[in-house]
Design goal:
Elements lengths: L5 E6 L6 H7 L1 E4 L2 E4 L2 E4 L6 H10 L4 E4 L3 H14 L2 E6 L7 H11 L4 E5 L5 H15 L4 H11 L3 E6 L4 H5 L5 H9 L2 E8 L2 E9 L1 H16 L6 E6 L3 H14 L4 E6 L2 H7 L4 E6 L2
Parallel strand pairs: 1-2, 1-6, 6-7, 11-12
Antiparallel strand pairs: 3-4, 3-5, 8-9, 8-13, 9-10, 11-13
Length: about 280
């Protein structure tokens, strides 16, 4: 029996390396960041480093935008010539319309697509794609692969700690009075991506306490679950990320760690200097 040709599709919120994308022929649709009304394709027209450098030094509006449905229509028109079907895993549908456009475009082009709303982004999204490819290579039936990936969604963790509330204020997520109080008392809100939405999980004072909060959350999961790898996510503050990575390594010597730059469409809202921790329970 002929083996089915499967196309893997995602978007730039997945934080996949160029090497992995090329090796596994993953098709990546870029989201956009908008700087003073000028559109840039994420990771193509502007790198994370360039974006955060500009956010730090320039005044103006920094926004994000989903891809157009035409981006997906063109992709699926090409893919249906060479592939039997596709598996698409996208950023949370509550945070971007990317997933919806992907599904709609596949329908318009009559391209068979198994679409998964990851309900997250960044490292957990990359985990789902890598695990999905592994499961297919192991010979699992496609419906079992999709079911397994959907199950993993409840076990993804992504916590972010903005260095200040400037961008959250500019994007309308917090009021001016909240920003002022947080600045006066050095309050750090801790954001979590849960069930597809961004929620404030806690508020602590000082960077040190926020980092301990993150490590303690990881410790809670490790008491009953298995975690093989932890990603330290940062918005162009490598020194702070290295300190958090050391804290994780010292606390849990057996766990692999990785440093990742925070995807720019998230950094639009959380700002330069954001630090986070992410993992998936297995």
């Amino acid at each position: 029996m002929k083996k089915a040709k499967i196309a893997w599709i995602t978007d730039t919120t997945s934080s996949l390396s160029k090497e992995f994308i090329q090796q596994h022929h993953v098709h990546v649709i870029p989201l956009h960041v908008v700087i003073n009304d000028e559109f840039y394709k994420e990771t193509i027209d502007i790198s994370e480093q360039e974006f955060y450098d500009r956010m730090k030094t320039e005044d103006g509006k920094f926004q994000s935008s989903q891809p157009s449905i035409n981006d997906f229509v063109e992709l699926y028109r090409q893919l249906k010539e060479d592939y039997d079907f596709g598996i698409a895993i996208h950023a949370s549908s509550l945070l971007t319309g990317t997933y919806l456009y992907s599904v709609m475009a596949a329908g318009l082009e009559d391209f068979k697509l198994f679409a998964i709303d990851s309900q997250t982004g960044s490292y957990p999204l990359s985990f789902l794609i890598k695990r999905g490819i592994e499961l297919v290579e192991q010979g699992l039936e496609i419906h079992d692969v999709v079911a397994a990936l959907n199950d993993y969604r409840e076990d993804t963790r992504l916590y972010l700690v903005p260095s200040n509330l400037d961008q959250l204020h500019k994007s309308g997520r917090v009021s001016g009075s909240q920003k002022l109080l947080a600045s006066l008392f050095n309050i750090k809100p801790i954001l979590s991506i849960e069930e597809g939405a961004a929620k404030i999980k806690d508020k602590v004072r000082t960077d040190k306490k926020s980092q301990m909060w993150l490590v303690n959350k990881l410790k809670e999961d490790l008491e009953s679950k298995k975690v093989q790898k932890v990603a330290i996510v940062h918005a162009n503050d490598l020194d702070k990320a290295i300190r958090l990575e050391k804290l994780v390594n010292d606390s849990f010597p057996g766990i692999e760690t990785e440093n990742l730059m925070l995807i720019t469409v998230a950094g639009v809202h959380t700002g330069v200097g954001t630090l986070g921790l992410s993992w998936v329970c297995e």
